User: Fold these one by one.
Assistant:
Number 1:
Amino acid sequence: MKVLGITGGIGSGKSEVLKYLEETYDAFVCPLDNVARLLQKSGQECFDRIVERFGKDILGSDGELDRERLGAVVFSNLEKLAVLNGIVHPGVKLWVRQDILQKEKEGTRLYVLESALFPDVEYRDICEEMWYIYAKEPIRRQRLKEFRHYTEEKIQRILKSQPSEQAFRNISTAVIENSGAFEDTMKQIGELL
């Protein structure tokens, strides 16, 4: 089984690439954000450790983590963000390793991990290849306005918070140019697979 990492900034077209890999190459796609959310649910080890560290004020009325409250605590303090990441990232990585073994037993041939945070979190020990889905910034901005209806201010804030283009390139084994027609992107993917 081949394990592939897909990364790139918001608006680069990762979702379209992932959908294409699922439909054309029968890939199993695992977005790491979804795994992190799962492991932060009540009853999970990450949940208990987060509440133990940050207190019950970060819980909503349903007893689950209130992501806005937690975000307000950690995103204004790099030290607290590092503590949160130190709880969540190892748990996600362990879950992914176990899932890869399970999917391999089930006969999966292509397992694709997706995260915009790969430049910040080490996954080279799991992924055989890391593809950076690249699109020029004006194209990304246009997509975010058109498809997600984001304001210019919101786009600016998000772009500023994400890893730099150089950080993405530094960890990648291949760069998929996704600024133009998707047919060109499909051709690049075909050449790599």
Number 2:
Amino acid sequence: MSKFISFITAGDPSLEKTREFIDILAQHSDIIEIGLPFSDPIAEGEVIQAANNRALANGTTTDKVFAMLETVSFDKMVLLAYANPVFVYGYDRFFQRCGQCGVYGVIIPDLPFEERGEAAVFADAYGVHLITLIAPTSAERVQMLAKEATGFIYLVSSMGVTGVRGEFDTDLASIVNQIRDVTQTPVYIGFGISTPEQARHMRNIADGVIVGSAIVKIIAEHGGTSGPHIKQFLKEII
């Protein structure tokens, strides 16, 4: 059965509200991806960049996010974090805290695959998957990345940054086939999926779909009262 993965930014509009929204997402999601706010999230479009800024302005820190996650019982949480805050926090300490909080996996979008070795050592030690991102590139590189992937593969729908897209011109089915030639690791497609039609299309191609900016946009519009709006959106897109 196709999986649904949702994304929110921790601390937007507050960590208390993030905790509330996680409970809502948990009712509809197989995996919840939680963004650790960072001042320079280079893979993010303006919607998630703004959410990062709001969260940082609210005083959200890595330690506070971990403390919040300790109160969550959902067993398939994934953190999206950038290399700089993870490095500054310390790989050992960061992945140890992930393990303590029940974090299933970590996505570090600006950590090149060829340089992930040091982080992977600590991720493995604490039972945390270091999730592989695959962009629409050459078949040779796609398969090289896929062979080493664990947990799941995050297939980027198109080149560029996150954000709602009207259409997709990448031959994603071909890329999924290239991946499945070398691994049975599930493939989930993300970046820009915001409508039920887009979600259905991606589910027909891959093992699941990741929806982020559309949810974050709801929170930007409704703030602390976003709960019912998130519920309605999830009912429509799932």
Number 3:
Amino acid sequence: MGYEELEIIKEECRNCHKCGLCKTRTNTVFSGGVPNDKLMLIGEAPGFYEDKQGEPFVGKAGQLLDKILGCVGLSRKEHIYICNTIKCRPPENRDPLPEEKAACRAFLDKQIEILKPRIILLCGRVAVNSMMETNQGITKLRGKWFEGPYFSKMMPIFHPSYLLRNDSREKGSPKWLMWQDIKEIKRVYDQLCK
């Protein structure tokens, strides 16, 4: 299926100097999980722990992501490929600048092109803004399916770090909404990918 191509792109990414983030990174953060043509999650940008370890979603937000996936029987070791909009950590975890996103876009596009996942989850506002031409916020977009590249289905979801800051589980709260979203994602996953 050409997954070895991902290793070539990963090595190119590791040696990338297309923007200023190469000067402050510890590691590039190319991907995590398992390459597959079923389920891809696109996050925003590496944080402190991701930069140190070279893998996406390894801090508290990553632990919560693993719990959310686990609630419906999915895991990063078996079912999901995880990558980010950009591959290097912005200083102080600020939002990526347009030129930084543009410099990294070819890597993300290649990951999508090689895998052609059936389902793409856009995790957080930055991922949504990078993949969709819209001015709507993630609160309005989350939980809805959109047409994605290579005939994929895309769904915006809340970033786990946002959920960590919003602890309520009451009906209508971000955590409650995420539970509705992950059940819908699993329903479509079972329909498209079994």
Number 4:
Amino acid sequence: MKQFLDNIKNELTNRPVQSVIDVVLFAFLIYALFVFLKKNDSVRLFKYVVAFLAVSVVLTSRLLDFKLLSHVFEYAFLVVIVGVAALFPQETRRGLWKISSPRDMQQAFNTQYDCSDEELKAGIDDIVRASLNMAKKDVGALIVITPDYIPVHIKESGTKLDAVVSCGLLESIFNTKAPLHDGAVLVRGNRILAAGCFLPLTQSLEVDKVLGTRHRAAIGVTETNNVLTIIVSEETGVISVAHRGNLKRYYDAEMLTDTLQEFYGLKAIPHSTKRGKHNKRDHGRA
């Protein structure tokens, strides 16, 4: 032990700056690992990770001079990183996507849903399929995708459902003979929270005056809330998407799927996108 401490003292004496940076970087990596495990409710694993690293440091020290073990444990931290990535593949993937996405869109990767990524993707597929089916039949629809918070007065203005998203259920809700077809459907994760909800209309003068109430409501709710809205025009069957007060139109299945997966944090968000067209005219009712 004395020799081990002497080696540390010599390092600090001969290379003070490098030694301090070395210690700080190592401490930061340990802290980042702890934060990651805590965020994913796996703090109990941290003590095993620390113990593994401590044993690695001891076994690779020059004092013991274990040749074989030294070579094996030289990459101990890399083993830990690979192990964590294997245990938390979805969280690791989201973390990498978050790094490559614009800062103003990174909140998508921090949102936690009460379902798996596979269930989210299944819900997205149902939303896209329902939107396309209603577009072909010229059935009007307004779907609000909320990652977290939606004002209580909007949610309570409709009828509470709390049902799993499905293509058939969405088409049934927006059937022109259904009592809830005139309002908006609120969706969080893979569940429909409520249907028949009333949304605030946008007061922006830049919105095309030929756009109807449905489009104005879709834009209005995104101006004050972090939500994304999907609009199907009952007159033309055009599928549009509103987000942050901006309306983009003429979405197909691939574009809508990509947009929803990015909003849910299921894929990286490009720094620039040319999807859809802004505020094109949609003659007739919306």
